[in-house]
Amino acid sequence: MLYGVTPELRKELLAAGHQMRVYVPFGEQWFGYSTRRLKENPRMAFYIIKALFYRG
Description:
Layout (H helix, E strand, L loop, with lengths): L6 H9 L14 H11 L2 H11 L3
C-alpha cells in the first residue's frame, strides 16, 4: 500500500490479521514512476489529494 493513502484501511487490514507492505517511491525516477501509477489508476489521485489535507 502506498504510504499515506487510506491509513484507516491499512489499520483495518492489519487488525484483521493481514500482512501489508507500505512503500514510498524514491530515487531519481520517483516522479515518472508515480505518474505512471496515476495513469494506471486515476482514482488513486483522489486518495493522494485527500491524504494531503487529512491525517487519519
